[in-house]
Amino acid sequence: MSNQNILNPDLWVNRYADALYTYTFVRVNDTGMAEDILQETFLSAWKNRGSYKGEASEKNWLFSICKNKIIDHYRKKTHSMSRPGVIDVSDAFFNEEGHWTSEAGPRNWGIEDQHSIDNKEFYTILELCKSKLQELQQSVFVLKFMEGQDSDAICKVLNITTSNYWVLIHRAKLQLRNCLHKNWING
Q1: Non-local CB neighbours of 62 within 8 Å, separated by 6+ positions
Q2: CATH topology of 3-77 equal to that of 82-187?
Q3: What pLDDT score does 33 carry?
Q4: Buried b (16+ CB within 10 A) or exposed e, 12-34
Q5: Residue ranges of the domains in the chain?
Q6: Fold assignment, 3-77
Q7: What is the pLDDT of residue 173?
Q8: What is the SS3 assignment for 78-142?
Q9: Domain 82-187 top-level CATH class
Q10: Of residues 160, 171, 134, 150, the one with CA closest to residue 78
């Protein structure tokens, strides 16, 4: 084990608390829950410090624990979520053949410079739009696009069917696109 891969629990809060909190808050969108998950992360790391092998840096090890705590949060949360009985996949975005309607079809946002989406304003609007999603849609979106989980793992964590997953992710993306279009592109 190299010197840089030794745990220093006395320094965890000073070194990693802010970054872990930010990482967690963006994923759960709740200050109290983010604080709880951060506390659970440090507690779990402390309890399991004897199993740390030094294969990953201390920081990466803590972030890995935190990521698992976030997934556990969504796993627990799924039991209290209200679930629609049957999700109707027909909506105003598509015609009978399954093609985009002329009103709802994707439009060019006119973003020529990739740097324009790397700004604080965009992420603030994205967070606002994400918070407007239904609870289960938000969970699917976070696990898929922020935690990088595959669809099978998400279905297992949230206890949903594959077809329900695809409808949820599809609708989340449509709603986010619409919200970003209204509040950021044309805002």
Answers
A1: 12, 16, 20, 41, 42, 45
A2: no
A3: 93
A4: beeebbeebbebbbebbbeeebb
A5: 3-77, 82-187
A6: Rna Polymerase Sigma Factor; Chain: A (1.10.1740)
A7: 87
A8: CCCCCCCCCCCCCCCCECCCCCECCCCCCCCCCCCCHHHHCCHHHHHHHHHHHHCCCHHHHHHHH
A9: mainly alpha
A10: 160
In order along the chain (187 residues), what is the average pLDDT of each group of 10 residues? 72 94 89 95 93 89 94 81 49 59 62 58 84 89 90 91 89 87 74
**Predicted local confidence at residue 60, as pLDDT:** 93
Residue 111 is predicted with a pLDDT of: 56
- CA 35, 83, 161, 174 dihedral sign is negative
The two most distant CA atoms of the chain are separated, in Å, by 63
Q: Specify whether the CB–CB gap between 116 and 125 falls below 8 A.
A: no
**Residue type, position 65, single letter:** I
Residue 90 makes CB contacts below 8 A (sequence gap 6+) with: none
What is the pLDDT, as a whole number, of residue 85? 45
Residue 59's contacts (CB-CB under 8 Å, 6 or more residues apart) are 15, 16
State the CB neighbour count (10 A cutoff) for residue 89.
Answer: 12
Contact 180, 172 (CB under 8 A): no
- Which own/partner pairs from 101-107 qualify as long-range (CB within 8 Å, at least 24 positions apart)? 106/177, 107/181
Residue type, 35: E
- The SS3 call for residue 19 is helix
